[in-house]
Amino acid sequence: MARYVVDVMPKPEILDPQGKAVLGALPRLGFAGVTEVRQGKRFELEIEGEASEASLAEVIQMAETLLSNPVIEDFEVHVEGDDAAGGKHKA
Amino acid sequence: MRIGVVTFPGSLDDVDAQRAVRFGGHEAVALWHGDHDLRGVDAVVLPGGFSYGDYLRCGAISRFAPVMTEVVEAAGKGMPVLGICNGFQILCESHLLPGALIRNDHRTFVCRDQRLRIENNRTAWTSAYDENAEVTIVLKNGEGGFVADEATLDRLEGEGRVVARYLDGNPNGSLRDIAGITNERGNVVGLMPHPEHAVEDLCGPGTDGLGFFTSLAAATFA
Questions:
Q1: What's the complex ipTM?
Q2: What is the architecture of the domain spanning B2-221?
Q3: Exposure pattern of A6-24 as b/e (b: 16+ CB <10 Å)?
Q4: CATH of the domain at A69
Q5: Which of A6, B38, B116, B152 has a C-alpha 20 to 30 A away from that of A77?
Q6: Between chains, do A69 and B93 touch, taking CB under 8 Å as contact?
């Protein structure tokens, strides 16, 4: 069983109101010095079989078609616990 | 004409949209998200609401509902499709319209009678309006901020594809005050405000929204 992680983040130029809300809340809780917060999503996918180029390509396709919206978000894919096998893919 | 209104799990305004379709002089046909069937309708409305609970992203799951395969194919052949609010989000996720809709910049839900300018009256859904008509219809959304890259925004403006623009202040952070857009052909329109809530005097801010539902007839018989 291979576990892939897909991290999805709003593109830098896209306003992130949720991150702004968290940024606003932190000082009220006494956490000083935070200058920026961006909020994204993390998906953990368990895929049958060993991690491979083929399954990585498939996860990238999932990220492009469903898990992220390329108009407003970027994503990164990596294999959990085995950076060498899958490496990191950015899009 | 027979106008289909799709109901997704979590649609809220499908019944209001059906009612508005009838007020516009058409037959309303209920369509179901899970069917690969448009039941022979002449046009489709994707109504407002929170389809699939807005899980993942607004419209992201709905885009892959069985009925959307048929809607995308029919839209490609020129069938008029109107997406209102959540329907607009679904049209963007389906790539029938460019851009995306994100959470309101002020982070609160907005619900108000909104003044708009109808800047493009050459679409299937806006031909009943005078060009640059100023209308008031209901706006209610949490994720209504229209965004796209500068090149896309310039192209939309340059090709006259901004259908409606907010007046009297920007309610949700939409870039260039955009409230609605159309595709190149003018048959697909996405609109964040709700014309189906402004079709009779008894409730709502008036009947300014009715034009979206009478335009199809006007276009047909013109």
A1: 0.87
A2: 3-Layer(aba) Sandwich (3.40)
A3: bbbbbbeebbbbbbbeebe
A4: 3.30.1280.10
A5: B152
A6: yes
Min CA distance, B28 vs chain A (Å)?
Answer: 31
Which sign does the torsion angle of CA B5, B174, B107, A69 carry? positive
Q: What is the CA radius of gyration of chain A?
A: 16
C-alpha closest to that of B125 among B51, B35, B219: B219
Domain count for chain A, please give it: 1
Q: What is the pLDDT of residue A81?
A: 72
Strand order across the beta sheet in which B188-191 lies: B27-32, B2-7, B43-46, B81-84, B188-191, B178-182, B162-166, B110-118, B133-141
- Summarised one tens digit per residue, pLDDT across range A1-59 is 899 999 999 999 999 999 999 999 999 999 999 999 999 999 999 999 999 999 999 99
Lowest mean pLDDT among A77-81, B51-55, B139-143: A77-81
Q: Do B147 and A72 touch (CB under 8 A)?
A: yes
To which residue do tokens 């609605």 refer? B180
Question: Is some CB atom of chain B closer than 8 A to the CB atom of A12?
Answer: no
Domain region containing A18: 2-90
Q: Work out the pLDDT band at B222, boundaries 50, 70, 90.
A: very low
Which among A18, A66, A71 has the least Cβ separation from residue B103?
A18
pTM of the prediction? 0.94
C-alpha span between B152 and B159 (Å, rounded): 10
